[in-house]
# Entry
Amino acid sequence: MKTHRFYLNASNYFLTSLYNQKLSVEEKEYHYFASVVLSWIALETHINTLSESLSKGTRIRQHEKSFLNEHE
# Structure
């Protein structure tokens, strides 16, 4: 799994590539869409990383760890 920084950089790549090339309107929409999707993936990756690191902590109870790890 890549880090959230990778996905943010990929999202930024699609946004900045719009200005470096002559693209049709449809191709620009693809780039915008890819950028938004990668931004959401970056956010989810960051949240999952935080949840995983919190679940390994010793100051939280077992049921809280299970919740963070999405277990029953």
User: Anything to note?
Assistant: The first helix runs from residue 4 to 20. Residues 55 and 65 are 4 Å apart (CA to CA).
